[in-house]
Amino acid sequence: MKALVRMVQRHGTLSMLCAAGVLLAVPFLIRGNDYLLRIAINILLYSVLATSLNMINGYSGQFNIGQAGFYCIGAYTAAILATRYGVGFWLALPASGLIAALSSVLLGIPTARLRGIFLAICTLGFSEIVRLTILNWIEFTRGPMGIPGIPFPTFFGYEISSNFGFYFLILTIAAVTLFVCHRVLNSRIGRAWIAIREDELAAKSMGIPTTRYKIYNLAFGTFWAGAAGCFYAYLSSYVSADSFTLDEGFAILCMVLVGGPGSLIGPLVGAFFLVVLPEMFRFLAEYRLVIFGLAILVTMHVRPQGIAGGGVFAAIAPDSEEPAGKGAAS
Amino acid sequence: MLQVTDLRVDYGNITALRGVSFEVREKEIVTIIGSNGAGKSSTLMAISNIARKSGGSVHFKGQDISSLKPSAIVRAGIGHVPEGRHIFPFLTVQENLMVGVSGNVRSSRATTAANLDRVYELFPILAERRNQNGGTLSGGEQQMLAIGRGLMVDPEMLLFDEPSLGLAPIIVETIFALIQKIRDFGKTILLIEQNANMALAIADRGYVMETGNIILSGSAKELANNPSVASAYLGI
């Protein structure tokens, strides 16, 4: 493992190319096996969701556990746009993201002063409010009947209707998500978010309008969750409020925590493990979720910073990092 | 340049400032000295509007900034180097400095590069450690980083809150020499210190605080020679 990490650090571009090659080759290797393809699609879908949550929890230190609510808003936006207004996938995708981001701003403005567990409870409540509203607003969302009949997305006239096609679609979305997140994190805005996470007082005294930046952060993170919701709606061609329970939100949160918050690779690793593990233990029927829980406990015990968190892929090894010396003489 | 009038701060039932008035003129180094709990830090926090004022006003260059947000005050031209350094431990030295650009109203690619060069010139050790995480620096280096970050904001006025806190005497001397150098760039400085000796040595004027009041003011030389200041704060 250490050798692998060192190799990745030394040959950044090369390993990126290798990873891209593997990801592009995978569907050809498992073509025809819809079960495996669907798992691969789920891994990528949850990678986007976990990345979107990581932008918030991992980088600005706000604690959002209601990501399923924004995922749900994105999915329903896409479903309604597609079935009622005949909007195509490529327009519904940014629209879903924007609507999710907009609703996060509406949530963010009154809760901007809340921190830690208080914000967490608010987002949790929001997630449930979204689900229950959708479940009961029958005229608009068809309530418990869900919205069926979402058409297949098309790409330059070519209809994406197989898992093979959907794989490349979500791969593209995941790549764009990661690329944009990477660029934003290395910009002034990204640094401001990290500054707020590390020390809000110092961030303020550096002239960062912390409240506004926290709301930007929430909007940015939930945008990608909304986009993921759009993909999900098209993938299953049917949306129902049952798919967006709190469990879904907790699963996304677990992926971030297990993978390593505050690193770009972490959520991808987390999504991979937490999608694959329950599948591997399918023979245990209901007990497979126990394995899921155990896996989380073990990771938190062995690597509290997450599998790929805490600077595994940074220049400095985690052991040599010390917290800021408070009042230590030089 | 900075005019503080009848500033009051309460923390619940506890009154920290009981009507503090003072002024800082352009390109001066003014120091506020006093013992623990005298209200020095509260004064700075109230100027930056991080602590809530219960009365009084702050004017900067004739403009009333009493109720501006902390970030707007930085943009108006008052940088704050907080007590206890407050660097970002998991950002690299260079990233720490780049955060300072957020509050810089005149920032462009060119000014940012120039400011960065200036900071690295002032603190060569930071240049050496630019890719190291802030948390791995020693106390003195962290203080330098905090000051450097304040300089990246490039404000007209800088507030320093106890830059000597927890540092070895030899490092304190370096830091204070640098504060003088920063004044030579044309900055105005308000320096809060417990280390009255060092502060009065580099300041033009000073104020002495005790239990939320300013009890003495004068030129740095006068204060240093004042028998009651000497006995209470200089340890002579």
**H and E order of chain B:** EEEHEEHEHHHHEHEHEEHH
Q: Which structural class fits the helix and strand makeup of chain B?
A: alpha/beta
Cα Rg of chain B: 17 Å
Tally of DSSP β-strands of chain B: 10
- Count of individual helical segments of chain A: 14
Helix content of chain A: 55-70%
CATH architecture of the domain at 1-77 and 190-236 in chain B: 3-Layer(aba) Sandwich
N- to C-terminal separation of chain B?
34 Å
What's the overall geometry of chain B? globular
What overall form of chain A do the CA principal axes indicate? globular
Question: Biggest β-sheet of chain A: count, sense, barrel?
Answer: 2 strands, antiparallel
How many helices of chain B? The count is 10
Give the proportion of residues in helices of chain B.
25-40%
**Largest sheet descriptor of chain B:** 6 strands, mixed
Question: How would you briefly describe this protein structure?
Answer:
The complex is a heterodimer of chains A (330) and B (236). Chain A is mainly alpha-helical and 330 residues long.
Description of the structure:
The complex is a heterodimer of chains A (330) and B (236). With 330 residues, chain A is mainly alpha-helical. Chain A has a domain at 49-243. Helix content of chain A is 69%, strand content 2%. Chain A is built from 14 helices and four strands. Chain A has helices spanning 2-10, 12-29, 34-57, 67-84, 89-111, 116-136, 138-141, 163-185, 188-198, 200-205, 210-236, 246-259, 266-280, 288-302; strands at 147-148, 154-155, 158-159, 238-239. Chain A has a two-stranded antiparallel ribbon. In chain A, helix 4 (67-84) packs antiparallel against helix 5, helix 8 packs antiparallel against helix 11 and helix 9 packs across helix 11. Chain A is globular, with a radius of gyration of 20 Å. Mean pLDDT of chain A is 83; it is low at 312-330. With 236 residues, chain B is an alpha/beta fold. Chain B has a domain at 1-77 and 190-236: P-loop containing nucleotide triphosphate hydrolases (Rossmann fold). Chain B has ten helices and ten strands. Chain B has helices at 40-47, 70-76, 93-100, 109-122, 124-128, 139-153, 169-184, 196-202, 220-225, 227-234, and strands at 2-11, 14-24, 29-33, 55-60, 63-64, 78-81, 157-161, 188-193, 205-210, 213-219. In chain B, the strands form two sheets. A six-stranded mixed sheet of chain B has the order 6-7-8-3-9-10, with helices on both faces. In chain B, strands 2-1-4-5 form a four-stranded antiparallel sheet, with helices on one face. In chain B, a hairpin with a 2-residue loop joins strand 1 and strand 2 (14-24). Chain B is globular and about 45 Å long. Chain B starts with a strand and ends with a helix. Classes of the chains: A mainly alpha (330), B alpha/beta (236). At the A-B interface, helix 9 and helix 10 of A face helix 2, strand 6, helix 3 and helix 6 of B.
